[in-house]
């Protein structure tokens, strides 16, 4: 890479990193007391509690793409507060089989791919992967190749809670996890999926 190209790549990465930090700051602010589901306000919970069962499950599937998880959380309504909802979320998640987790993984795009849908989950994925915007071509190519190698090794999409991460940090996580054995990687995947589920559940209730 020539010196001007290198400077350009560094500037693009700096812009992407700045945008990622701004997105992460907005996400942290949204979860502070007094700003949404964490505040214990009743209105968002009343909205979720009042939905017909099928509608509630469809909304919850945007948070975690497992039918078993969405069905369990929807069936536990009404919830008196955010803490009760989060407890139900975690209980339902802990009960998921690996097949349920794979169902949820199938609803996530590859890291580096930009979902084009207009549904909630697609919009959230675009925001969560803000760190890949402006990344240089070498990093994007490495992410693409790494995704393929990961899928060949483990049989499912590489999942990381991308909120607040730059493309280089996502790539570093991917490369590190390629060295995991299957049991270790399944534990990691569950942890990343739960983090995403928590973030999306907050967003669902903040902006119904």
UniProtKB/TrEMBL annotation:
Catalytic activity: 5-hydroxy-2-oxo-4-ureido-2,5-dihydro-1H-imidazole-5-carboxylate + H(+) = (S)-allantoin + CO2
Comp. bias intervals (Basic and acidic residues): 1-30
Biological process terms in GO annotation: purine nucleobase metabolic process; urate catabolic process
Oxo-4-hydroxy-4-carboxy-5-ureidoimidazoline decarboxylase domain span: 49-202
InterPro entries: OHCU_decarboxylase (IPR018020), OHCU_decarboxylase-2 (IPR017595), OHCU_decarboxylase_sf (IPR036778)
NCBIfam families named in the record: PRK13798.1 (NF010372), UraD_2 (TIGR03180)
Protein name as it appears in the record: 2-oxo-4-hydroxy-4-carboxy-5-ureidoimidazoline decarboxylase
Native source organism of the sequence: Thermomonospora echinospora
Lineage, top ranks: Bacteria, Bacillati, Actinomycetota, Actinomycetes, Streptosporangiales
């Amino acid at each position: 890479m020539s010196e001007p190209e290198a400077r350009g790549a560094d500037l693009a990465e700096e812009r992407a990193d700045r945008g990622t930090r701004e997105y992460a700051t907005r996400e942290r602010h949204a979860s502070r007391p007094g700003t949404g589901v964490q505040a214990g306000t009743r209105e968002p919970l009343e909205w979720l509690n009042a939905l017909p069962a099928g509608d509630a499950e469809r909304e919850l599937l945007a948070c975690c793409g497992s039918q078993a998880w969405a069905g369990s959380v929807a069936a536990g309504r009404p919830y008196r507060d955010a803490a009760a909802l989060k407890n139900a979320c975690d209980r339902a998640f802990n009960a998921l089989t690996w097949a349920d987790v794979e169902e949820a993984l199938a609803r996530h795009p590859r890291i580096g791919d930009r979902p084009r849908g207009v549904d909630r989950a697609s919009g959230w994925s675009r925001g969560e992967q803000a760190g890949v915007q402006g990344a240089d071509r070498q990093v994007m190519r490495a992410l693409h190749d790494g995704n393929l190698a990961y899928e060949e090794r483990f049989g499912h999409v590489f999942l990381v809670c991308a909120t607040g991460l730059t493309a280089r940090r996502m790539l570093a996580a991917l490369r590190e996890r390629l060295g995991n054995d299957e049991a270790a990687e399944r534990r990691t995947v569950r942890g990343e999926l739960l983090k995403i589920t928590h973030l999306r559940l907050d967003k669902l209730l903040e902006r119904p």
